[in-house]
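Each record in this resource describes a single protein on a pair of labelled lines. An example record follows, reproduced without changes.
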Amino acid sequence: MVMEDVTNVNRNRRYISDGLAVVKMTFLKNMQEISTAPRYEPEMVYQHFGDEETIFGYEDLEVTIHHTAQTLYSYINVSYSSKAKNENGLEADDVIDKLVHPDVRPNVLVSGKEEFQQKLIKQKDFKPFGEMVHKFELKGKSYEVYKVAEQTEEFNLFLERIQTLGMFFIECCSLTDNTEDNWLHYFIYERCDTGEGDGSTVANVAGYATLFKFYNYIDRIRPRIAQMLLLPQYRKSGIGASFMESFLRDLRASPEVFDVTVESPGDQFVSLRDYVDCVNCMTLREFAPENLKRGYSDKMRQAALEKLKISRQQARRVYEILRYRATNKKDKEELKAQRIDVKRRLYAPMKKSDQDWKRLNLALTPDELRQAACGQMDEETKFSTLSQNYDRLMEAYQKTIDRIEQHPSIF
């Protein structure tokens, strides 16, 4: 690696790197894979390098975060052709310092390549934490889902490592305080043959979900999904839906669970949840096509809640998706009735007063509630906004419908 001093770095853009482009990740089973393993890009690095997600001070920068596939210890390799000189108060970013917070660094990062190699050797002895609640086969591979309800020091350190990784993929991801008893965690692993010829296997981490159990009067709880992550090598393969359905089945089996909610979901999560909930509701007679065309009913809400632990707001959304799916788009009257049904709900915040907004929270998503400002609009603007909102919603619904047509069952 060549080092050179550079002056006037403020005017030299070559020393500013796009963090999303230069940071890569690997997940290794052994040291032999370190140069050949697939490199994956993070979805975000703003928690590490600021809102602009840029790294200052290096030319031809490459940052590779190597992980042990089972235990998620990290070894970071940083390479570059030149480094900016510290002049006029401008100093090159300490990449490793920004990637891993000092409070968790001793647990997450190894001291060097030799220690990383030892972690790779030892990880074959790793056993999943908690209790296995489901296992399934998908595209010739085996997966296991585990629930962890009681934390230990060893588990908490493991969780700290995967949540540190989650900051690259989950919006506003943070480390959970496991001193609280209300946290509940699910993990999915791929069960792989070691290749040693003796039938032994290892469990590679594929993802996790973290929930917080909120109290619900009198003796029930409302688990809220706070984080859900699939590692990049397991995405776009159907595993996300299978994982979600696995831990939802476990939650549905518990009589103390009232319903399952979500905290600030991103678009990808919303799409995944819609698909899973729609596939499940399609098995309920209350959501049969002939019932859907009659309009949303309390029987639908009650069936979704009691049989599938789906919240009131989500049940209404599922109804709208499935009704749109059941609507004959060539029948103008049928399509008009569907459109009026949805627009009537979307129009509600435009005509309600402040005292009604609490009730609207039960029926509308945060994005839809923000449209309540439309109450101050004139009728022409309201009509235009309503049409735009409907079109965007149907576009999202159609993506879920297309997935249902392609994959009508989860397992």
Remarks:
- The CA atoms of residues 128 and 203 lie 7 Å apart.
- The longest strand covers residues 201-216.
